Amino acid sequence: MQKSVVLAEKPSVARDIARVLNCGRKGNGFFEGDRYIVTWALGHLVTLAEPESYGDQYKTWRLEDLPMLPKQLNLVVMKQTSKQFHAVKAQLKRKDVGEIIIATDAGREGELVARWILEKVHVTKPLKRLWISSVTDRAIKEGFQNLKNAKGFEGLYHSAVARSEADWYVGMNGTRALTTKFNAQLSCGRVQTPTLAMIAKREKDIQTFKPVPFKQLSVKMKDGLTFDWTDKKTNERRMFDETKAKTIYERIKGKTGNVSDVQTTTKKTPAPLLYDLTELQREANKRFGYSAKETLSIIQRLYEQHKVITYPRTDSRYVSTDMVDTLAERIKACDIQPFRKIVSQVKREKINKNLACINDQKVSDHHAIIPTEQSPSETALSEKETKIYRLIVRRFLAAFFDAYEYEQTTVIATVESEQLVVNGKQMKNLGWKVVYADDSIENDGAKDQLLPKLTVGQSVSVKEVTITPGQTQPPEHLTEGTLLSAMEKPSVYLESHNKDLAATLGKTGGIGTVATRADIIEKLLNTHLVEKRGKYLHVTGKGRQLLDLVPDDLQSPALTAEWEQKLDLIAKGKLDKQTFVAEMKQYATDIVTSIKQSEKSFKHDNVTGSPCPDCGKLLLEVKSKHGKRRVCQDPGCGYKKNISKVTNARCPKCKKKLEIWGEGEGQTFACVCGHREKLSTFQERRKNNQNKKVSKREVSNYMKKQNKEEFSNNALADALAKLNLKE
């Protein structure tokens, strides 16, 4: 009997599939049952070969050898995971295997993981595709009952290959050209560089911003109500003419006017759309300060390990109509604290296909991130996983409620021909905001401001006029959350206001993809082109110089967005992969030519006074999230040495993490607050603290004593007694 090999992307998913398919026999890198053999990759097992494999001339980095344009890029097995590659290969080549089922992640990169393995193994057996959005047992069973023809995903594969080859040609050539021309470790990329340029543009906007002073008038009436002066034509509250503010102040001070208009309108705010990856990363950064990479890692665990959410690498914020029948079970899975009360309300409502979150036209490969039919156990999730899971559940449950509805009343008073305005707000239907009743962020705009009943013609008397000075504020530095927004909608970062390019950016969803943006931000930080100061991102001196050296068009988000659009056309079978790759080769050639002809220079701004022990050139000091290190400024030398490391030890003064400097007995702990102590002193202090610790028995006895003594006859005990509580 012929068997089917199931190729998963990771061991954890493979174990789940193997269990569902009754593959109980464990082999070397696979599970086997009567009908199926389940094996797995470890992410990518196969990748594009390094430049040196295309000729000895590329083993050393020389500007005259560029551009590197092999006719065809070769695949190689990754050394660190070669053992698993050969385990997978052995199963694919088995004579009793008649079919292969690709079960890697249902996306562009997942398709590439599997297809490159199959190409490297030279397997020609029939292919099928498992395409599922969650890895619960039910989803896996249904997926295997509805396996798809793998031919339908060849466009996705070609798109993935085109993306990978484009990054090779542009990145490898650009990076080698910059590094050899300017004798510094510099890198560029088709998404990385325009992202860096957006951060730099925001910094430039802040630096060139000139604050403009203005005045605002608030007018307190004798009945206690406070109005704001507004311009009759523009409704602008600010006055940039100080003389005008003083003139109006004198004109209306102590005067009487009347109510000229009272408008009451009913307004509705629908529930926010469901989460896609970018929106969830943005929200987690705003609320909890999590980086984009950290959030992706957390939700990947919620998806793969805990199986409580659907596929996370999605750019859709809707679900399709064929999912309506599954929503009741997903709601039931959310019937855990702190959502039980909300779930009971949702259960009373009939789920229909007219919900705003249900839209077949806006679901492409994957629907929005929503809960699965599986509940997490009380202790299964870590603190961070719980926070992200609750965000997803709240947003999901909110979709089943009516719009938040309120009445807004605007009262306009006229005093000496000047317009004074006050707004009131009264909630009519809390709607979806009931899900966020304990959430100060979502409910910030839900606070009511009730106005007394006022009628047109009613007299009002000015009691007090206050002039409040202010000035226009510069834009904020970008955080990871706001940078994700900028990458998603970068049209405002175009130097030229080209409507066609702006439209392109809108259609393509910006630069990069939802799955790659976190990695791009992380790479900018790791290569010291960007650094974090608090929660804000700042371009380093190295990053600013790099932008000065890189050709201008590589910095434009428009070019990158056009490429993303072409990759999408390849995925849909509307553009040939080779046409796009040929364009990338030409572009790489243009970049190299531009860099070769450059008369600019690069100057290190982090040079130390210490010479490199290997080549004698002065060392550079670079920061990382793990500490500081010194590296040789000559990329060809490669010398590097850690000089400080961030530890988990806490400062006794400010409680921040300490850095450890030096070597051997001379090692010293240092803190940003100025505290310093030798390693020997620190160890002695820690030893003394450990000696002071009390045992569990002592703690238990102390608590029992407290319970007897403290609550024997006090106000709290009396109050509890009056309640007559029963167990």
Automatic annotation (TrEMBL):
Q: Where is the active site?
A: Y311 (o-(5'-phospho-dna)-tyrosine intermediate)
Residues holding Mg(2+): E9, D105
Keyword terms, alphabetized: DNA-binding, Isomerase, Magnesium, Metal-binding, Topoisomerase
Q: Which residues cross the membrane?
A: none
Q: What is this protein called?
A: DNA topoisomerase 3
Q: Which InterPro entries match?
A: Topo_IA (IPR000380), Topo_IA_2 (IPR003601), Topo_IA_AS (IPR023406), Topo_IA_cen (IPR013497), Topo_IA_cen_sub1 (IPR013824), Topo_IA_cen_sub2 (IPR013825), Topo_IA_cen_sub3 (IPR013826), Topo_IA_core_domain (IPR023405)
Region feature (Interaction with DNA): 187-192
Is this entry keyworded Lyase?
no
Spell out the PANTHER family in the cross-references.
Answer: DNA TOPOISOMERASE 3-ALPHA (PTHR11390:SF21), PROKARYOTIC DNA TOPOISOMERASE (PTHR11390)
Work out whether the entry's keyword set contains Manganese: no
User: SMART domains, from UniProt?
Assistant: TOP1Ac, TOP1Bc, TOPRIM
Under Enzyme Commission nomenclature, its number is 5.6.2.1
Family label: Belongs to the type IA topoisomerase family.
Give the required cofactors. Mg(2+)
Reaction(s) catalysed by this chain, per the record, are:
ATP-independent breakage of single-stranded DNA, followed by passage and rejoining
Q: What does this protein do?
A: Releases the supercoiling and torsional tension of DNA, which is introduced during the DNA replication and transcription, by transiently cleaving and rejoining one strand of the DNA duplex. Introduces a single-strand break via transesterification at a target site in duplex DNA. The scissile phosphodiester is attacked by the catalytic tyrosine of the enzyme, resulting in the formation of a DNA-(5'-phosphotyrosyl)-enzyme intermediate and the expulsion of a 3'-OH DNA strand. The free DNA strand then undergoes passage around the unbroken strand, thus removing DNA supercoils.
Q: Where is this site: Interaction with DNA?
A: W61, W168, R176, R313
HAMAP family per UniProt: Topoisom_3_prok
Give the species this sequence originates from: Halalkalibacter kiskunsagensis
What range(s) does the Toprim domain occupy? 3-136
User: Residues in domain Topo IA-type catalytic?
Assistant: 153-592
